[in-house]
């Protein structure tokens, strides 16, 4: 009976230690991902990011300063700066990155050509060469 109780207690301790280390690894992984995004985006007014905190608060702005353990996000409209430790943020995403003006122009040009070809084809089908 004593061995069985000891085995149950030992198992409970090992399970609780394993769960704690898994949580620590998750926090460390999130911090490393955040650090990687900030490093990739860089620093300056063109380094736009969106920071999501554990309480689902979102902070948008640009990275004005970055160090090994923290980074500062400044709101472009208000100029308010807020410093975050990498391990206290849940996610950092790069903002912007939409289609460039050239890409948009090429897409609209393709749409225009498609419309022109469609109208030419339809005109030929309905006019019988007399239009």
- Percent helix range: 40-55%
**How many E-type strands?**
5
Strand order of the largest sheet: 4-3-2-1-5
Question: What would CATH call the class of the largest domain?
Answer: Mainly Beta
**Pairing-aware structural class of the strands and helices?**
alpha+beta
The low-pLDDT segments are none
The CATH architecture designation of the largest domain is Roll
List the quaternary state of the chains. Answer: single chain
How much of the sequence is in beta strands? 15-25%
How far is the first residue's CA from the last residue's CA? 101 Å
Secondary-structure element order, N to C: HEEEEEH
The name CATH uses for the topology of the largest domain is SH3 type barrels
* Tally of discrete structural domains: 2
Shape: elongated
Could you explain how this protein is built, in words?
By secondary structure, this protein is α+β, with helices and mostly antiparallel strands. The chain has two domains: 2-96, SH3 type barrels (Roll); 98-131. Helix content is 51%, strand content 21%. The protein has two helices and five strands; from the N terminus they run αβββββα. The chain has helices at 2-41, 101-127, and strands at residues 48-52, 58-66, 70-74, 81-85, 91-94. The protein has a five-stranded antiparallel β-sheet with strand order 4-3-2-1-5, with helices on one face. It is elongated, with a radius of gyration of 28 Å. The chain starts with a helix and ends with a helix.
Q: How do you describe this structure in short?
A:
The protein has 131 residues and is an alpha+beta fold. It has two helices and five strands.
